[in-house]
Specification:
single chain; alpha/beta; about 20% strand; globular
Length: about 270
């Protein structure tokens, strides 16, 4: 589905943000990118759709090398790649529905998008997507009136409106509380599994990555230093990726937090009876 070969990015300052990254992403697989700040996670994701121009390497989406494309061809190929951003990237003065429909901008003539006259099938699909992400009742609300979790759900629906073949997700939970973070990750993984949609998720929360990702890629200083299953993330591997830390204490703290959230849900359910 997606093949990266020798993907590198060196800035004019001489800093190497990404060095010789090679990996395959098969259809339907959900991959988590983990690593310390500055490891190259966001750079890797943004090189794939060329929001950042790579210095070297290949980006094969099917049989198309995205690195070799001119602006017009790249614009067409980007329709195949959905992007979900950490800061949501919504147009706040527009409604939830209008933001979701903006995912169709690459498919409709300019006059339709300017006048906000989208084809009926696009509107029907947008309603289906809003229902799937739990925001049908918010369709006419302005984006700036939503909570962080709701905004991220709009971002997910907008990306899916493109009908992408690949999903790129850049730190989807960085601005969210722990409970909402789990809800968003659960929603993302369920949707990808339903659609057989491959995804690369840049995620800073290791326990979340272990819980929801099918495969983990660990980066350090722009290089891939680990590629394996969540179960293989031993303390030694985490030390290779992040450096020395008390990983046992970190896991214990996360387990206690998860249990506290479960207890709170149980109390709320009991009160609702």
């Amino acid at each position: 589905m997606l093949h990266l070969e020798g993907l590198s990015k060196t800035y004019k300052t001489g800093d190497a943000a990404l060095s010789d990254a090679t990996l395959d992403v098969p259809k339907g697989q959900i991959i988590g990118l983990i690593g310390p700040s500055g490891a190259g996670k966001s750079t890797l994701i943004r090189c794939i759709n060329r929001l950042v121009e790579p210095t070297a390497g290949k980006i094969m989406l099917g049989d198309v090398d995205l690195v070799k494309l001119g602006k017009t061809e790249l614009r067409h190929q980007r329709r195949r790649i959905g992007m979900i951003f950490q800061e949501y990237a919504l147009v706040e003065r527009l409604t939830v529905m209008e933001n979701v429909l903006s995912g169709r901008l690459g498919y409709v003539p300019f006059w339709r998008s300017f006048l906000r006259k989208y084809p009926p099938q696009d509107i029907q699909n947008a309603y289906r997507l809003l229902d799937r992400v739990g925001l049908m009742h918010q369709a006419d609300k302005r984006a700036d009136a939503l909570s962080g979790g709701q905004r991220q759900r709009v971002g997910i629906a907008r990306a899916l409106a493109q009908e992408p073949e690949l999903l790129l997700v850049d730190e989807p939970t960085a601005s969210l509380d722990p409970k909402t973070s789990r809800q968003i990750m659960r929603l993302l993984t369920e949707i990808c599994e339903e659609r057989g949609l491959p995804a690369i998720v840049n995620i800073h929360d290791v326990p979340l990555a272990q819980q929801f990702m099918q495969r983990i890629i660990g980066l350090n200083s722009g290089r891939i230093v680990f590629d394996g299953s969540p179960e293989e993330l031993s303390d030694d591997v985490l030390t290779t990726i992040y450096g020395a830390e008390d990983w046992h204490a970190m896991r214990k703290g996360d387990e206690e937090q998860t249990q506290a959230e479960a207890d709170a849900r149980d109390r709320m359910a009991a009160l609702a009876r």
